[in-house]
Design brief:
By secondary structure, this protein is of the alpha/beta class. The chain is built from seven helices and 13 strands.
Length: 358
Protein backbone atom coordinates (compact mmCIF):
# COMPACT_ATOMS: atom_id res chain seq x y z
CA UNK A 1 0.00 0.00 0.00
CA UNK A 2 1.38 3.35 -0.98
CA UNK A 3 2.18 6.20 1.30
CA UNK A 4 -0.79 8.25 2.47
CA UNK A 5 -0.77 11.74 1.05
CA UNK A 6 -2.95 14.80 1.51
CA UNK A 7 -4.08 16.11 -1.88
CA UNK A 8 -4.82 19.78 -2.43
CA UNK A 9 -8.33 20.54 -3.59
CA UNK A 10 -8.57 21.28 -7.30
CA UNK A 11 -11.02 23.49 -9.21
CA UNK A 12 -12.30 20.79 -11.64
CA UNK A 13 -13.35 18.67 -8.70
CA UNK A 14 -14.97 21.60 -6.90
CA UNK A 15 -17.20 22.21 -9.87
CA UNK A 16 -18.86 18.84 -9.36
CA UNK A 17 -19.60 19.12 -5.66
CA UNK A 18 -22.99 19.02 -4.08
CA UNK A 19 -23.98 22.30 -2.46
CA UNK A 20 -25.01 22.75 1.15
CA UNK A 21 -28.46 24.04 1.99
CA UNK A 22 -28.98 25.64 5.41
CA UNK A 23 -27.17 23.62 8.05
CA UNK A 24 -27.87 20.16 6.64
CA UNK A 25 -25.70 18.28 4.19
CA UNK A 26 -26.37 17.91 0.47
CA UNK A 27 -28.98 20.65 0.21
CA UNK A 28 -31.56 18.98 2.46
CA UNK A 29 -33.38 21.71 4.34
CA UNK A 30 -35.72 19.19 5.88
CA UNK A 31 -34.43 15.88 7.20
CA UNK A 32 -36.13 12.81 5.79
CA UNK A 33 -37.49 10.77 8.67
CA UNK A 34 -35.87 7.35 8.81
CA UNK A 35 -38.37 4.51 8.76
CA UNK A 36 -37.44 1.45 10.79
CA UNK A 37 -38.31 -2.01 9.52
CA UNK A 38 -41.26 -3.67 11.27
CA UNK A 39 -40.50 -5.39 14.57
CA UNK A 40 -41.32 -8.76 13.02
CA UNK A 41 -40.52 -9.41 9.38
CA UNK A 42 -41.93 -12.57 7.81
CA UNK A 43 -39.43 -15.41 7.62
CA UNK A 44 -40.13 -18.03 4.96
CA UNK A 45 -37.72 -20.97 4.84
CA UNK A 46 -38.82 -22.37 1.49
CA UNK A 47 -38.46 -19.12 -0.39
CA UNK A 48 -42.20 -18.54 -0.79
CA UNK A 49 -42.91 -14.91 -1.61
CA UNK A 50 -43.86 -12.84 1.40
CA UNK A 51 -47.03 -11.65 -0.30
CA UNK A 52 -48.15 -15.24 -0.72
CA UNK A 53 -47.25 -16.07 2.86
CA UNK A 54 -49.21 -13.18 4.33
CA UNK A 55 -52.33 -13.50 2.20
CA UNK A 56 -54.11 -11.67 -0.59
CA UNK A 57 -54.91 -8.58 1.50
CA UNK A 58 -51.21 -7.94 1.99
CA UNK A 59 -50.68 -8.25 -1.76
CA UNK A 60 -53.48 -5.82 -2.49
CA UNK A 61 -51.98 -3.25 -0.11
CA UNK A 62 -48.60 -3.61 -1.79
CA UNK A 63 -50.13 -3.05 -5.21
CA UNK A 64 -51.96 0.05 -3.98
CA UNK A 65 -48.67 1.53 -2.77
CA UNK A 66 -46.62 0.52 -5.83
CA UNK A 67 -46.54 4.09 -7.14
CA UNK A 68 -45.18 5.45 -3.86
CA UNK A 69 -41.46 5.47 -3.19
CA UNK A 70 -39.07 6.10 -0.32
CA UNK A 71 -35.34 6.81 -0.20
CA UNK A 72 -33.10 3.94 0.87
CA UNK A 73 -29.33 3.44 0.99
CA UNK A 74 -27.93 0.54 -0.98
CA UNK A 75 -24.27 -0.32 -0.49
CA UNK A 76 -22.82 -1.10 -3.91
CA UNK A 77 -19.33 -1.70 -5.30
CA UNK A 78 -17.71 1.15 -7.24
CA UNK A 79 -15.12 1.00 -10.01
CA UNK A 80 -12.28 1.09 -7.44
CA UNK A 81 -13.67 -1.89 -5.53
CA UNK A 82 -14.99 0.14 -2.58
CA UNK A 83 -18.32 -0.58 -0.91
CA UNK A 84 -20.21 2.71 -1.16
CA UNK A 85 -23.67 3.92 -0.09
CA UNK A 86 -25.93 5.15 -2.87
CA UNK A 87 -29.34 6.60 -2.08
CA UNK A 88 -32.09 5.42 -4.43
CA UNK A 89 -35.88 5.60 -4.61
CA UNK A 90 -37.55 2.26 -3.85
CA UNK A 91 -41.25 1.35 -3.78
CA UNK A 92 -42.77 1.57 -0.31
CA UNK A 93 -43.26 -1.77 1.38
CA UNK A 94 -43.67 -3.19 4.86
CA UNK A 95 -40.95 -5.78 4.21
CA UNK A 96 -38.15 -3.22 3.96
CA UNK A 97 -35.32 -5.50 5.11
CA UNK A 98 -36.14 -8.12 2.49
CA UNK A 99 -36.59 -5.44 -0.16
CA UNK A 100 -33.18 -3.78 0.27
CA UNK A 101 -31.50 -7.19 0.15
CA UNK A 102 -33.28 -8.01 -3.10
CA UNK A 103 -31.96 -4.75 -4.53
CA UNK A 104 -28.39 -5.90 -3.76
CA UNK A 105 -28.69 -8.90 -6.13
CA UNK A 106 -26.91 -8.66 -9.47
CA UNK A 107 -29.25 -8.58 -12.48
CA UNK A 108 -32.15 -8.05 -10.08
CA UNK A 109 -34.45 -5.01 -9.75
CA UNK A 110 -31.47 -2.76 -9.01
CA UNK A 111 -30.41 -3.08 -12.66
CA UNK A 112 -32.87 -0.36 -13.70
CA UNK A 113 -31.54 2.18 -11.19
CA UNK A 114 -27.87 1.20 -10.87
CA UNK A 115 -25.62 4.29 -10.99
CA UNK A 116 -22.92 4.37 -13.66
CA UNK A 117 -19.67 2.82 -12.47
CA UNK A 118 -21.34 0.72 -9.76
CA UNK A 119 -22.36 -2.93 -9.50
CA UNK A 120 -24.54 -4.96 -7.18
CA UNK A 121 -22.89 -7.32 -4.71
CA UNK A 122 -24.97 -10.48 -4.21
CA UNK A 123 -24.55 -13.16 -6.93
CA UNK A 124 -27.11 -13.18 -9.74
CA UNK A 125 -29.90 -15.69 -9.30
CA UNK A 126 -29.85 -15.49 -5.51
CA UNK A 127 -33.29 -15.46 -3.86
CA UNK A 128 -33.85 -13.79 -0.51
CA UNK A 129 -35.78 -16.59 1.19
CA UNK A 130 -36.74 -14.47 4.18
CA UNK A 131 -35.68 -12.21 7.01
CA UNK A 132 -36.32 -12.24 10.74
CA UNK A 133 -35.62 -9.47 13.23
CA UNK A 134 -34.85 -10.73 16.72
CA UNK A 135 -35.48 -8.79 19.93
CA UNK A 136 -31.80 -8.01 20.46
CA UNK A 137 -31.59 -6.19 17.12
CA UNK A 138 -30.10 -9.08 15.14
CA UNK A 139 -31.47 -9.44 11.62
CA UNK A 140 -31.27 -12.98 10.20
CA UNK A 141 -31.11 -13.02 6.40
CA UNK A 142 -31.70 -16.32 4.61
CA UNK A 143 -30.47 -16.76 1.04
CA UNK A 144 -30.83 -19.48 -1.58
CA UNK A 145 -27.77 -21.65 -2.44
CA UNK A 146 -26.88 -19.36 -5.35
CA UNK A 147 -25.53 -16.97 -2.70
CA UNK A 148 -22.35 -19.10 -2.63
CA UNK A 149 -21.46 -18.34 -6.24
CA UNK A 150 -19.21 -15.32 -5.84
CA UNK A 151 -15.55 -14.55 -6.42
CA UNK A 152 -13.31 -14.96 -3.33
CA UNK A 153 -12.14 -11.35 -3.54
CA UNK A 154 -15.75 -10.16 -3.21
CA UNK A 155 -16.51 -12.02 0.02
CA UNK A 156 -15.82 -9.20 2.49
CA UNK A 157 -17.42 -6.67 0.17
CA UNK A 158 -20.61 -8.74 0.08
CA UNK A 159 -20.67 -9.10 3.85
CA UNK A 160 -20.02 -5.39 4.41
CA UNK A 161 -22.62 -4.33 1.84
CA UNK A 162 -25.31 -6.52 3.39
CA UNK A 163 -24.45 -5.39 6.92
CA UNK A 164 -24.27 -1.66 6.23
CA UNK A 165 -27.38 -1.69 4.03
CA UNK A 166 -29.45 -3.37 6.74
CA UNK A 167 -28.06 -1.36 9.65
CA UNK A 168 -29.22 1.91 8.09
CA UNK A 169 -32.38 1.11 10.07
CA UNK A 170 -32.11 2.07 13.73
CA UNK A 171 -33.46 -1.17 15.17
CA UNK A 172 -31.10 -3.45 13.24
CA UNK A 173 -27.79 -3.67 15.11
CA UNK A 174 -26.13 -6.73 13.56
CA UNK A 175 -26.66 -9.29 10.82
CA UNK A 176 -26.54 -13.09 10.69
CA UNK A 177 -26.48 -15.15 7.49
CA UNK A 178 -28.39 -18.31 6.66
CA UNK A 179 -28.23 -20.30 3.43
CA UNK A 180 -31.31 -22.37 2.60
CA UNK A 181 -32.39 -22.23 6.25
CA UNK A 182 -29.03 -23.17 7.79
CA UNK A 183 -27.04 -20.83 10.02
CA UNK A 184 -23.58 -19.96 8.72
CA UNK A 185 -20.62 -19.62 11.09
CA UNK A 186 -18.35 -18.53 8.22
CA UNK A 187 -18.87 -17.14 4.74
CA UNK A 188 -19.04 -19.99 2.19
CA UNK A 189 -16.02 -19.24 -0.05
CA UNK A 190 -13.13 -17.66 1.91
CA UNK A 191 -14.49 -18.65 5.34
CA UNK A 192 -14.64 -15.15 6.82
CA UNK A 193 -15.98 -15.63 10.40
CA UNK A 194 -19.56 -14.42 10.90
CA UNK A 195 -20.65 -16.40 13.96
CA UNK A 196 -22.55 -14.20 16.39
CA UNK A 197 -23.39 -11.66 13.71
CA UNK A 198 -21.66 -8.78 11.96
CA UNK A 199 -22.15 -5.08 12.78
CA UNK A 200 -20.86 -1.71 11.64
CA UNK A 201 -18.24 -1.98 14.35
CA UNK A 202 -16.54 -4.61 12.16
CA UNK A 203 -15.75 -1.87 9.64
CA UNK A 204 -16.04 -1.25 5.91
CA UNK A 205 -13.39 -0.96 3.19
CA UNK A 206 -10.88 -1.90 5.87
CA UNK A 207 -7.28 -0.72 5.61
CA UNK A 208 -4.98 -2.78 7.81
CA UNK A 209 -1.83 -3.01 5.70
CA UNK A 210 1.18 -1.39 7.32
CA UNK A 211 -0.20 -1.83 10.83
CA UNK A 212 2.54 -3.78 12.67
CA UNK A 213 0.41 -4.94 15.62
CA UNK A 214 -3.31 -5.00 14.88
CA UNK A 215 -4.08 -6.32 18.38
CA UNK A 216 -3.12 -2.96 19.87
CA UNK A 217 -5.35 -0.95 17.54
CA UNK A 218 -9.04 -0.21 17.16
CA UNK A 219 -11.14 0.85 14.14
CA UNK A 220 -12.13 4.37 13.13
CA UNK A 221 -14.26 4.99 10.04
CA UNK A 222 -13.78 8.16 7.98
CA UNK A 223 -15.24 9.37 4.69
CA UNK A 224 -13.08 10.27 1.71
CA UNK A 225 -14.16 11.49 -1.73
CA UNK A 226 -14.28 9.79 -5.13
CA UNK A 227 -15.60 10.79 -8.53
CA UNK A 228 -17.62 9.18 -11.31
CA UNK A 229 -17.65 11.46 -14.32
CA UNK A 230 -18.74 14.88 -13.10
CA UNK A 231 -20.23 13.52 -9.89
CA UNK A 232 -18.65 13.45 -6.45
CA UNK A 233 -19.51 10.83 -3.84
CA UNK A 234 -18.36 9.90 -0.35
CA UNK A 235 -16.64 6.61 0.51
CA UNK A 236 -16.39 5.20 4.07
CA UNK A 237 -13.00 3.71 4.94
CA UNK A 238 -12.15 1.96 8.21
CA UNK A 239 -8.60 2.43 9.47
CA UNK A 240 -6.85 1.00 12.50
CA UNK A 241 -5.54 3.52 15.01
CA UNK A 242 -3.36 2.77 18.06
CA UNK A 243 -5.18 2.06 21.29
CA UNK A 244 -3.09 4.79 22.92
CA UNK A 245 -5.18 7.24 20.89
CA UNK A 246 -7.96 7.69 23.43
CA UNK A 247 -9.83 10.41 21.52
CA UNK A 248 -11.47 8.83 18.47
CA UNK A 249 -12.73 12.20 17.28
CA UNK A 250 -9.20 13.60 17.12
CA UNK A 251 -8.00 10.33 15.56
CA UNK A 252 -10.62 10.57 12.80
CA UNK A 253 -9.63 14.15 12.02
CA UNK A 254 -5.98 13.12 11.86
CA UNK A 255 -6.84 10.39 9.32
CA UNK A 256 -8.90 12.83 7.24
CA UNK A 257 -6.01 15.29 7.08
CA UNK A 258 -3.59 12.46 6.23
CA UNK A 259 -5.81 11.75 3.26
CA UNK A 260 -6.47 8.54 1.35
CA UNK A 261 -3.81 6.08 0.29
CA UNK A 262 -1.96 7.02 -2.87
CA UNK A 263 -3.34 5.16 -5.87
CA UNK A 264 -6.58 4.22 -4.14
CA UNK A 265 -8.74 6.28 -6.49
CA UNK A 266 -9.90 8.43 -3.58
CA UNK A 267 -9.27 12.16 -3.22
CA UNK A 268 -8.01 14.06 -0.18
CA UNK A 269 -9.87 17.31 0.44
CA UNK A 270 -8.00 18.80 3.42
CA UNK A 271 -5.06 21.17 3.15
CA UNK A 272 -1.97 19.42 4.59
CA UNK A 273 -1.38 22.25 7.07
CA UNK A 274 -4.86 21.99 8.59
CA UNK A 275 -4.86 21.03 12.25
CA UNK A 276 -6.84 21.34 15.44
CA UNK A 277 -5.87 24.24 17.69
CA UNK A 278 -7.58 22.68 20.71
CA UNK A 279 -8.80 19.22 21.64
CA UNK A 280 -12.34 18.46 20.39
CA UNK A 281 -15.08 19.36 22.85
CA UNK A 282 -18.08 17.06 23.25
CA UNK A 283 -21.32 17.94 24.99
CA UNK A 284 -24.84 16.50 24.65
CA UNK A 285 -24.21 14.97 21.23
CA UNK A 286 -22.44 18.03 19.79
CA UNK A 287 -18.75 18.11 18.91
CA UNK A 288 -17.03 21.49 18.64
CA UNK A 289 -13.83 21.64 16.59
CA UNK A 290 -11.41 24.58 16.67
CA UNK A 291 -9.11 24.55 13.62
CA UNK A 292 -6.34 26.77 12.39
CA UNK A 293 -6.74 28.64 9.09
CA UNK A 294 -5.61 25.54 7.20
CA UNK A 295 -9.23 24.36 7.28
CA UNK A 296 -10.15 26.94 4.64
CA UNK A 297 -10.77 25.32 1.28
CA UNK A 298 -9.88 28.27 -0.96
CA UNK A 299 -8.08 31.59 -1.00
CA UNK A 300 -11.26 33.26 0.22
CA UNK A 301 -11.04 33.96 3.93
CA UNK A 302 -13.59 32.27 6.18
CA UNK A 303 -14.83 29.91 3.44
CA UNK A 304 -14.94 26.19 4.23
CA UNK A 305 -15.37 23.90 1.24
CA UNK A 306 -18.45 21.71 1.06
CA UNK A 307 -16.47 18.50 0.78
CA UNK A 308 -14.36 19.29 3.84
CA UNK A 309 -17.48 19.99 5.88
CA UNK A 310 -19.30 16.93 4.53
CA UNK A 311 -16.35 14.61 5.18
CA UNK A 312 -16.02 15.90 8.73
CA UNK A 313 -19.71 15.51 9.56
CA UNK A 314 -20.09 12.08 7.96
CA UNK A 315 -16.94 10.79 9.68
CA UNK A 316 -17.65 12.12 13.16
CA UNK A 317 -21.36 11.24 13.26
CA UNK A 318 -20.36 7.67 12.44
CA UNK A 319 -19.18 7.52 16.06
CA UNK A 320 -21.59 6.62 18.84
CA UNK A 321 -23.20 9.60 20.52
CA UNK A 322 -22.11 12.24 18.00
CA UNK A 323 -25.12 13.94 16.45
CA UNK A 324 -23.78 17.27 15.18
CA UNK A 325 -20.55 19.15 14.48
CA UNK A 326 -19.76 22.82 15.11
CA UNK A 327 -16.62 24.40 13.65
CA UNK A 328 -14.61 27.45 14.65
CA UNK A 329 -11.31 28.84 13.38
CA UNK A 330 -8.96 30.16 16.04
CA UNK A 331 -11.94 30.35 18.37
CA UNK A 332 -14.16 32.39 16.03
CA UNK A 333 -17.43 31.06 14.59
CA UNK A 334 -17.44 33.21 11.45
CA UNK A 335 -17.12 30.57 8.72
CA UNK A 336 -19.31 30.59 5.62
CA UNK A 337 -20.09 27.82 3.15
CA UNK A 338 -19.19 27.94 -0.53
CA UNK A 339 -22.56 29.44 -1.41
CA UNK A 340 -22.05 32.25 1.10
CA UNK A 341 -24.28 31.04 3.92
CA UNK A 342 -23.00 31.64 7.47
CA UNK A 343 -22.13 28.44 9.30
CA UNK A 344 -23.68 29.59 12.55
CA UNK A 345 -25.29 26.36 13.71
CA UNK A 346 -23.97 22.82 14.24
CA UNK A 347 -24.27 20.60 11.17
CA UNK A 348 -26.12 17.30 11.49
CA UNK A 349 -25.73 14.11 9.52
CA UNK A 350 -28.06 13.68 6.54
CA UNK A 351 -30.54 10.82 6.53
CA UNK A 352 -29.23 9.76 3.12
CA UNK A 353 -25.72 9.83 1.63
CA UNK A 354 -24.74 10.15 -2.04
CA UNK A 355 -28.12 11.14 -3.42
CA UNK A 356 -27.00 12.26 -6.89
CA UNK A 357 -27.96 10.35 -10.06
CA UNK A 358 -25.00 9.45 -12.32
Amino acid sequence: MGKRTAHRWMAPVLASLLLLGGCGLFGNDEAVKEIDPPQETSYVKDGQALQEATGDKQGEKEEAKAAETVKRELYLIDKHGFVVPQTVELPKTQAVAKQVLEYLVEDGPVSEILPNGFRAVIPAGTTVLGTKLEKDGTLIADFSPEFKQYKPEDEKRILQAITWTLTQFDNIKRVKIRINGYDQEVMPVNKTPIQGGVSRADGINIEASGVPDITNTHPVTVYFVAQQGDHTYYVPVTRRVPNKEKDDIAAAIHELIQGPDHGSGLVGVFQPDAKLVDAPKYEDGKVTLNFNEGIYGSNKKNVISDVVLNSLVLSLTEQNGVESVAITVNGKADLVTEDGKPLTKPVTRPQNVNTGTF
